[in-house]
Amino acid sequence: MAEIVGCSQKVLRLYEKNDLVKPARSDGQRRLYSQRDIERIEFIHYITHVRNVNIPGVKVILELLQHIEPERWETIIRGVEDQVDALPADEKKAMEQGSAAIFEELGQLDEDS
Q1: Reduced to 3 states, what is the DSSP secondary structure of residue 32?
Q2: pTM
Q3: Triad 88, 100, 61: Cα angle to 5°
Q4: Is 24 helix (H, G, I), strand (E, B) or coil?
Q5: Residue 71 burial (10 A CB sphere; 0-12, 13-18, 19+)
Q6: CB 99 within 8 A of CB 57
Q7: What is the Cα–Cα distance from 47 to 45, expressed in whole angstroms?
Q8: H/E element holding 84?
Q9: What is the C-alpha to C-alpha distance for residues 89 and 110, in angstroms, rounded to an integer?
Q10: Which of 13, 39, 52, 56 sits a CA distance of 20 to 30 A from 105?
Q11: In which element (H, E) is residue 31 found?
Q12: Contacts of 59 by beta carbon, 8 Å cutoff, 6+ apart
């Protein structure tokens, strides 16, 4: 699964530990990922690694997206990205520094796989 979504198994377990994804389990307790799980993991991986959103931020975004029709997600996400891009440099820097430890941990997890 990790190869399919482009992250390590440790990162997948981190996402599961933080209740960002909840794969089904087989009788032998193997994780069974649905297509929806795969798409969710790809989205989480994108917003954590490309858009620099930390885990608490991911939780807020996913909660908000539950109340929006999937057809509108892309438009809304683009709007949020535009707003982040428009932040003053000092606010962006503070936001990046606040999540730096989490990204460092995620990077180390990716390297460990």
Answers
A1: strand
A2: 0.62
A3: 70
A4: strand
A5: exposed
A6: yes
A7: 6
A8: helix 70-85
A9: 29
A10: 39
A11: strand 31-32
A12: 18, 19, 20
Q: What are the phi and psi torsion angles at 24 (to 5°)? A: -70, 165
pLDDT, tens only, 41-93? 988 988 888 888 999 999 998 888 888 887 787 787 778 778 777 878 877 77
The token duo for 84 is 């982040």
Cα 81 to chain center, whole Å?
Answer: 14
CA dist 64 and 86 (Å) reads 21
Give, in degrees to the nearest 5, the angle at Cα 55 between 29 and 48: 100
Give me the amino acid identity at 92: K
SS3 content of the chain, % helix, strand, coil (to 5): 70, 5, 25
3-class secondary-structure state, position 30:
coil
